[in-house]
């Protein structure tokens, strides 16, 4: 089992920045891809970014240039730095851990709310 706990969400004005954190515990190791997804009201959960233990990253096209994912394997922590925020990124952001070789080993955090408004 893997437990994921997000933090760092909140309210920010347009143009501002937030840094989300996700602390993983339990049976987490470098065979897990870590990532972030988000869900806005009335919409399906969507992909934001992922990072491997080797720091290989992947971003949704709309996030490139404004979001940066990073990871510390020793601390079992992944971050999402979000800059130049716009109201349309308002959503609940979820941390995700997915095993490289077994899709059944997929875990989610409880989510953290990000609100961008003036």
Please, could you describe this protein's structure?
The chain is mostly beta strands. It has no helices and eleven strands. It has strands at 2-7, 10-12, 18-26, 32-39, 46-51, 57-59, 67-72, 77-82, 91-99, 106-108, 112-116. Strands 2, 4, 5, 6, 9, 10 and 11 form a seven-stranded mixed sheet that branches. Strands 1-3-8-7 form a four-stranded antiparallel sheet, with no helix packed on it. The relative contact order is 0.32. The model has no long low-confidence stretch (mean pLDDT 95).
Low-confidence stretches: none
| Number of helices in the DSSP assignment | 0
From the structure provided, what is the oligomeric state, counting identical versus distinct chains?
single chain
Biggest sheet details = 7 strands, mixed
The shape is globular
Q: Order of helices and strands, N to C?
A: EEEEEEEEEEE
Mean pLDDT: 95
Q: Roughly what percent helix?
A: under 10%
Determine the N-to-C terminus distance. 40 Å
Count of DSSP strands: 11
Q: In what range is the share of β-strand residues?
A: over 45%
Secondary-structure content class: mainly beta
Instruction: Give Rg in angstroms.
Output: 14 Å
List the helices and strands and how they pair.
Elements lengths: L1 E6 L2 E3 L5 E9 L5 E8 L6 E6 L5 E3 L7 E6 L4 E6 L8 E9 L6 E3 L3 E5 L2
Parallel strand pairs: 2-11
Antiparallel strand pairs: 1-3, 3-8, 4-5, 4-9, 5-6, 7-8, 9-10, 9-11
